[in-house]
Amino acid sequence: MPRLLLINPSIAHKSIGAIRETAWPPLNLPYLAAVTPDHYEIEVIDENVQPFEYREADIVGITALTASVYRAYQLAQVYRNRGIPTIMGGIHVSMMPEEALRFCDAVVIGEGEDIWHKVLEDFEAGSLQKQYRGFWVNLETLPLPRRDILQNPYYRWGNIQTSRGCPMNCSFCSVTAFNGRRFRRRPLDLVIEELEQMPQKWVGLTDDNIIGYGKKDLEWTRTFFSRILDKGIKKLFFAQASILIGEDRSLLRLASRAGLRVVFTGMESVNPNTLQAYRKDINLKSLNQGRYKELISNIRKEKIVFHGAFVLGGDEDDRSVFQSTLQFVKSSHIDVLQMTKPTPLPGTQLWKILQEGGRILDQNFPQAWTEYRLSRLVFRPAQMTIEEVYEGFHYLREIYFSFWETVKRTFYTLLATKNLTSTLIAYKLNASYKKAFRNSENYPLYNRPNLKKKFGS
Q1: Fold adopted by 147-454
Q2: Is the whole model's pTM more than 0.85, yes or no?
Q3: Which CATH number among 1.10.3470, 3.30.9, 3.30.300, 3.40.50 corresponds to the domain 3-133?
Q4: Distances (CA, A) of 428 to 20, 305, 342, 393, 447
Q5: Which of 49, 145, 174, 194 could, after both became Cys, cross-link 154 (CB 3.0–4.6 A)?
């Protein structure tokens, strides 16, 4: 019986960190396990919940995001140097296959489920190829992921995927390049069956947009939450959705009754020029119509926490973006705030523009990929210095996470949602972001007394 070892590397490879905060189970590895022949013995190492220890294997598969790919290359070398066939896949490897082949024996480009059987057949025949190109999978025939290969007690959250693909093609996002522009849904019956099998009470809906991109997708979402109620499934959900979910109060009410407690929305910016550059047409239209606050309010009124994500520091932003964003976050009573810096991930339009313009700071790849974790600025911005961007982030976060702002925000969350569970979720999410902010290497560097004078005007 051949031994297959699947590895999910962590960017925080020096320690496993806080398990309660990082314990989101990988979903791609259980899908690969589901299409692996029964005669394989499968083991998983997830560095997010356990430190790496060498395990014997006959073949190794490693997945990686851009931020974790340098660690993935290190682990691949451990097995490759021992003569064990090592396969790599995932978004980064799919965008940079030639780079990855310096560290492994074969790469899988694109979605791997339909090509994995061929990889294993070639491995058993001793004729492993260098590259395998997966197709966009027919989700109608995709089997249920094998969660039994994971150490479930570690994972406080479960996650489930109901769709793949996105037609939006935002400039900083690699989803379209990897999953295609066609939005594909899984059969509803299979999704419900999978949901009923999941042991966790807290479930993340990993779709980039749970409501999809048209009336048909919207009705699928409505039926999905109705079925959860009909089946008596008692779970609490975290979902990603576009701001347009706020237009449908009846859907929000239904989703809330079914257990939806947090909606994560990529707001990206309150600067229309930035939204235009990011190609966030949906957001730009809502912003220009003056509907941002209305749509956020509609979501919060249905006992759902609004988790707003902003990408600050792009070429269209100047120093005023931090104050304008802060004022909007406070006035719209966004319950949870995530802020990241624009990161040119391989395969995105942003990467192409900045690379061709010679604006990427550190070209020492693959080690430089460790900086591509959304919290670091890896290029020269157009209207600010690099230091000003870091100072602006510190200024905004210092005010947002201050004691009285936290008290007021928690009160407003409770007032709007009228739900203690939702309020507690929002408080804990913000506490987690605050802890990461205070513990970051940048905190002592930019904790300066003149920031309010510099950015507050």
Answers
A1: pyruvate-formate lyase- activating enzyme (3.80.30)
A2: yes
A3: 3.40.50
A4: 12, 12, 25, 21, 24
A5: 49
